[in-house]
Amino acid sequence: MENYVVSIRTAAQRRQHVAAEFNKHQIAFHFFDAVTPETLAESIAEHCPNLADAFLTGGEKGCFMSHVCLWAKCVADDLPYIGIFEDDVIFGRNSSRFLNDTKWLDERFQNQSFIIRMETFLKANPVALSKSGVRPFNGRKILRLQSFGFGTAAYLISQQTAITLLNWIREVAPEKLEPIDNMLFNAASEIPEIQMYQISPALCIQELQLNRADSSLSSTLEDGRLARHQQLDGGKTQPEQSQENRNIFAWAKNKIVKEYKRVKRRWADDKKIVPFK
Questions:
Q1: pTM for the complete prediction?
Q2: pLDDT digits 0-9 by tens, 66-106
Q3: pLDDT tens digit sequence for 187-227
Q4: Which CATH architecture has domain 3-213?
Q5: 222-237 burial, b if ≥16 CB within 10 A, otherwise e?
Q6: Which residue, 1, 148, 2, 152, is CA-closest to 66?
Q7: Residue 8, burial from CB neighbour count under 10 angstroms (0-12, 13-18, 19+)
Q8: What are the residue boundaries of the structural domains of the chain, listed by start?
Q9: In Å, how far are 5, 128, 196 from 176, measured between CA atoms?
Q10: At 3, phi and psi to the nearest 5?
């Protein structure tokens, strides 16, 4: 298995963490230098020109393109599969059996386009799962993922999937481009030829999700996301807007929130917390 870790070259603490984690579990890996502001424009122009006009932060665009570049590497290097990780990942037991060999993939997914989500956000992100008909491996089920899963810290794709994603992502309108986890585990779920799976119990978890009260790895990307959401919220009621427009917005927002809560309650019982071990 070819495993790649997206990481900023100068992020010494995070690189030290993830190298120790891979070495602890005896999993082979390569660092992949994350797209930075200095290389972002060139990367976008080559692989995803529409991203230039998307309403995402610079950090979100860099993260987005880092993953897209790894999809392209999978194709260019003729890799049958690629494991993609972020540098805050923590592994569960026996992860090496999944990540050092591709035989289990060959036996279950030959000639199939798939995305296998290997991480969990625990109670922060319950997901809808169903039986897939795929045989379990090493005590873990391989279930059908039927709802949005946060994060892109750990997933596997086939070369067929990489080709499909690269062709698809270039055609998405800029205003519909969202952070990479949303595109991969939400929007891409509508691509009919790609099958979405979740390993349960999960193989991986982000350090921040496991150690919420005492995380040792800060995330500038999450800070940037928060700033963008605050900007979006602040832009809805500019002073120059009329009182009538503000009233209309308040009414619409209240209606949307109520509908969201209704749908959330309806689906809550159908979603499960993916355990980590």
A1: 0.83
A2: 999 999 999 999 999 999 999 999 999 999 999 999 999 99
A3: 888 899 999 999 999 999 999 888 876 776 765 444 444 44
A4: Alpha-Beta Complex (3.90)
A5: eebbeebeeeeeeeee
A6: 152
A7: middle
A8: 3-213
A9: 27, 24, 21
A10: -110, 130
Amino acid identity for residue 120 in this structure: T
Which token pair is 187? Answer: 């929007």
SS3 130: strand
| Nearest one of 43, 37, 48 to 10, comparing CA atoms | 37
Q: How many residues does the chain have?
A: 277
Q: Report whether pLDDT(113) > 90.
A: yes
Q: Hunting for tokens 């993260």 — which residue is that?
A: 63
Distance CA 55, CA 154 (A): 25
**For residues 128 and 146, is the Cβ–Cβ distance under 8 A?**
yes
Of 3, 61, 10, 8, the residue nearest 29 (C-alpha) = 3
How would residue 232 be classed by pLDDT, with cut points 50, 70 and 90?
Answer: very low
Q: Which residue has the tokens 């665009």?
A: 61
